[in-house]
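Exercise 7.
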Amino acid sequence: MSKKMIIKGVGKLLAKKRNADGTEVEVITLGTLQSLRFDFNVEIEDIFGGDSLFAIDTLVRSKSISCTATDAKFDLNAMRLMMGSNVSASQNTYLWALDEQKMLAAGDLDPAATTPVKIASATVDRGDSLYGDGNLSVRLKDNNLLLTKVNFDATKAPTEKEFMVETKTVGAVKTTRIILNEKHANKDIVFNYQYETSDVDVLDILSNEVPFPVTVVHHGSFLQKDNTYAGVETELFSCVATGQFSIDTERTSAASSTISLKIIDPERADGKIGTIKRYTATTI
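Solution. The predicted structure, written as tokens, is:
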């Protein structure tokens, strides 16, 4: 008979996916858990008979086990459990640059032109790596006016409610310039755009993907007052994600993410759905 123990921490959680050939591959390890909860639930229905006001027996309608884990570190693989998609590592893709702000400088559309066209302009920080045309949107900061993009014309400046984009390569240097009417000189603009980048991990959210079953292992080893370590290890052979996956961000606060898993019948020949092990050790 195992003796009682005091759980003094949260431990670690591992989820493994079973492949079609029977092998298992690790999906995620949550080693910086903030909280972990296993809920074991039994639903029972009373059976009545005769004139007694008390049930004469009970019928077990269902049993369920759920696991909810909150981790201090964000991992795309946690969302993979919920969405069912794969994570593609080190991809070439695009990212958004949001709310980049610049002051417009007065200048000429083409300094080499015989009759200069006066404009106001600002350069884009990542203008050497725009994704396609950059999908640029530009606003005047002082009145939040969204400007309309027009095709670049080397002979005239845009109107006060328009902007155009000039991309130029000199030698090995590529620059992108946002061009506005000269009346906007010395004003601030705020703009958003897409730029190309590499070495990005991507999880594509697909409309027809469903969560896949995983084996869940929770392991915790805790120092007791007699200087021994008491441990508890829970293994659930088949679980699927349920509920909602939350990325909870808040000003001046570190975000955490929460996943919820629910057990399903692994349909093993021995009838087992999981195990809970209690052990003692001299080291962690």
